[in-house]
Amino acid sequence: MEEHSEKAASEKKNIFRKQKLQRGTGRKFRSLRMEFAVLFFALMAGAVAAMFLANNAFLERYYNREKQDTLENTYERLNAAAASNSIESIAFGNELTQIANRNNISILVIDEESQTVRAMAADVDTMMNRMWDNILETTNELPEDFDEHKVASWQEDRHAPNYYIVKRLQTGDSTRVQIVLDKGTGTQYMERWGMLSNGSYYLLRTAMDSIRANAMIANRFILLVGGSVILLGLLVAMLLSGRITRPIIQMTELSKKMRKLDFSAKYEGNDRNEIQILGENMNDLSETLEETISELKNANARLRQDIEHRDKTEAMQREFISNVTHELKTPIALIQGYAEGLQDGMADDPADRDYYCGVIVDEAGKMNHMVSQFLSLTHLEFGQNNELNYENFDITELVRNYIRTGGLLAKERGIQVKIESSGPIYVWADQFYAEEVFQNYFTNAVNHCDGEKRIDIRFEQKENKVRIGVFNTGAPIPEESLPRIWEKFYKVDKARTRAYGGSGVGLSIVKAIMELIHQDYGVHNYDNGVEFWFELENK
């Protein structure tokens, strides 16, 4: 149940991840560079539009305020000159001329006797008439139903006044500031008039049309320059946005590869800012993830190997127990049968008792030998006490010593043992394991030797190895059995193996030892026999 729930949870997680990826791929993404350029364009266009609107809404008012301040400053300069009796001096006249020309102001000053003191205007008579209209307060207010389109019809009405007051800006005891409309020309003027400190009257006037014209010129200039700046800014924005977004795009591609567990790509920018720090952090993250995933994969591989080794070990244990039980069943049954025969008095004759006891002793010896081989194979396969002790020794001497002590059985069976060697051959190996391999080969050869009853022990020198071969005459091993003779408990001729007390693990012990020392071994069929061989290093 637990494995099923984990599998279901994993499947749900995979489905959720796929749906998320599908939503992500279906989403429309916009280029960061294009967004940056559009944002820059919008800011520039908004700034130009704001300047245009501000110019339309406030420039004329600002200009009016500035003109009003200019008229006031001019008045203050006139009043100061009148107070110091320098109003008619040449120096002040030059100064006044500069003020008038610079600020487009018409100036008229008359004394108490209506004599002109200063006159700086293109039409002095008009200025004089306006002076008296203001002094006498004969200028009417502009009618509420005034319409600029009616100016032309007003110009034809000779009975209508020539001037109207459009707006009063300042009213005082000695000063009046107002905007008037000239019916004849349709022009508005800002006027400041009143009395100076010496009792003289003054009139200052500037045309309002120049203010409107300047405002319109300024608006056209803003649109012209603003449009050029917007286009130039858009080009610069595209260039700058490309430079700014290039490292971000690079990191985006880097993150895509990281998502696919490809950590080969690295951020290679050199921006010397926060983006560079982010890129270096991405590189560090990539290396850390690569190391972590590598460690996880290695740990997972080791875990799988451990699980496989455990399963293999358990299977080997089960197989070993089953095979041992099967192999021991026959000798145990024989021992039990003959022991019960002795117990029941079936062997009263001394010869029979000796026979029964001989069978019991023989089967017990076979069991002891079999158990010893089982234990040796178990130690080899499960890695118990498998420490190797390499030393340099004469392999021919080892073989001769074994034949002198362990070759008695061959002599009893009439087998001729021949060692084909002309002198000592030194090898590097574990002497105990080397003797164990030779012992199993020799014992196997003795038990299967037929025909000429001959065993040949051969030594073949190779480049840096020595091949030791044990040949016995007799029937070759069937071809179908050759791949399986190294398996535990496999027997080509079960009846014959049982006859000499074999357990079927001798060659398995050879296989385990040779794989432990990482050397080659094998078997070769001949017409008149079989040769088993193994190799050892001699350098």
What portion of residues is helical? 55-70%
Helix/strand-derived class?
Answer: alpha+beta
Average pLDDT taken over every residue? 79
According to DSSP, the number of beta strands is 14
Count of helix runs? 13
Based on the model shown, name its key terms.
58% helix, five-stranded mixed beta sheet, single chain, alpha+beta, 14 strands, seven-stranded mixed beta sheet
Task: Walk me through the topology.
Blueprint: H1 2-26, H2 32-83, H3 90-103, E1 106-110, E2 116-120, H4 124-136, E3 140-141, H5 151-156, E4 163-171, E5 175-182, E6 187-195, E7 201-207, H6 209-259, H7 274-343, H8 350-381, E8 390-394, H9 395-406, H10 408-412, E9 416-420, E10 426-430, H11 431-447, E11 454-461, E12 465-473, H12 494-499, H13 506-516, E13 521-526, E14 529-537
Parallel strand pairs: 3-4, 9-11
Antiparallel strand pairs: 1-2, 1-7, 4-5, 5-6, 6-7, 8-10, 11-12, 12-14, 13-14
Helix pairs in contact: 2-3, 2-6, 6-7, 7-8, 8-13, 9-11, 11-13
Provide a descriptive summary of the structure in words.
With 539 residues, this protein is an alpha+beta fold. The protein contains 13 helices and 14 strands. The strands form three sheets. It has a seven-stranded mixed beta sheet, with helices on both faces. Strands 9-11-12-14-13 form a five-stranded mixed beta sheet, covered by helices on one side. Helix 6 (209-259) packs parallel to helix 7 and helix 9 (395-406) packs across helix 11 (431-447). The longest helix has 70 residues, at 274-343. The radius of gyration is 61 Å and the shape is rod-shaped. Residues 494-502 have low confidence and may be disordered.
